[in-house]
Amino acid sequence: MTNETLTEQQAFLILNALPNIGPITTNRLLEELGDDPRVIFTTPSRRLESVKGVGPAISSTIANWREHFDLAREEERMAKSNAGFISPRDEGYPKLLKEINDPPIGLYRKGNYDFAQPCIAIVGSRRTTLYGQSVAKKFGSELARLGFCVVSGLARGIDTAAHEGALSVGGKTAAVLGCGIDIIYPPENLALYRKIEEQGAIVSEFSFGRRADRQSFPMRNRVVAGMCEAVVVVETDVSGGSMITARFAGEQGRLIFAVPGRIDQATSQGCHQLIRDGATLLTSVDDILSELNYLDGLRPQPIPEKETKEPGAMLAGLNEVEATVLEQFRGGALLTLDALASQTGRATSELSATLMMLELKRLVAKRSDGAFEAR
Questions:
Q1: Sheet holding 201-204, edge to edge
Q2: In Å, how far are 16, 34, 111, 358 from 208, measured between CA atoms?
Q3: Backbone angles phi, psi at 149, to 5 degrees
Q4: Residue 318 belongs to a domain with what CATH number?
Q5: For residues 16 and 69, is the Cβ–Cβ distance under 8 A?
């Protein structure tokens, strides 16, 4: 294949993979040479070097691109793994991502989701608490149910919980990888990777085989922030990667929300710093909707509610005490531990253990005011 016979997508694919060029330089070349990526490969080196930021090293890399990138092999890998490549010219490229200073030259994508719905990122620590996981899952499910696409990085901890929350209600979710799209990291998220591919999208700006490193994760974080209306930070320490995502969000003009946590918990210190620095303290999805201030016609379409389970189905598999306690929540009742003790005649110690089991089975949830309610 000659430079003259390259397609536009192939030209973007090559530019995305070449070392030391990057999105900013590529955009300058496109502005100077007529907005057609194919022209870059047929332009003499002297003309290329007249563009700001392009020196002999870059012009040589472009002229000898075959020494740096095997296009045929990459296309074969894409075909085998059922992955596509979308450039900023394609409809499936996230619209907000085009607005940042250095948007990716292109994105590898698995899954058919085209980012038509507004996106909100939920990010946080890999070393998280049960509280953090439950909050991330709750916000993930509620935002997805409202019609938003939940974006995160497929990492352990908060990312995993956010993706799972969106999937649990049949919503859309997208995972942005800090490695090649053929590498599943962490490996224990293989099943989650496949579910996201089926129900949403897996995206990466990195070529096949690229391993995650200190450079790739910040690059991934800028994409997460750039494609979203807002970034929600659930748990992070002050030096965590989520703080980098929040910084990108601030630079890109996105809304930043932070969930407060315990003052003695290291993974809450980053969130508390963000709140001190001006991030919106987040306690419910209503806080996000209020800040976004969508007009009714611009709100995403909520997904249909799942059918309510029959009483018998909800009680199946519960022991006698669990069934008795769950029965008290019929009709949307909000009950404290003391109220349950009064209604059932059982000891509070027994009820505490029972409520914990019902929480683990995702049948009841504890509210911020200490009362319990059925899910």
A1: 84-86, 107-110, 201-204, 173-176, 149-152, 119-123, 230-233, 255-258, 280-281
A2: 12, 29, 16, 44
A3: -90, 125
A4: 1.10.10.10
A5: no
Q: Find tokens 């990010």 and name the residue.
A: 123
Q: Which residue has the tokens 């089926």?
A: 198
> Which stretch, 176-180, 285-289, 316-320, 338-342, has highest mean pLDDT?
176-180
User: For residue 338, what are the contacts with CB-CB under 8 A and spacing of at least 6?
Assistant: 348
Residue range of the domain that includes 348: 311-374
Burial of 303-335, coded b for 16+ CB within 10 Å and e otherwise, reads eeeeeeeeeeebeeebeebbebbbebbeeeeeb
Closest CA to 123 of 131, 114, 132, 112: 132
Q: Letter for the amino acid at 195?
A: K
pTM for this structure?
0.78
Q: Is residue 183 domain-shared with residue 288, that is, in the same domain?
A: yes
Asked if 231 and 256 count as a contact pair (C-beta separation under 8 A), the reply is yes
Q: How far is 372 from 50, CA to CA, in rounded Å?
A: 67
Tens-place pLDDT, residues 215-247: 899 999 999 999 999 999 999 999 889 999 999
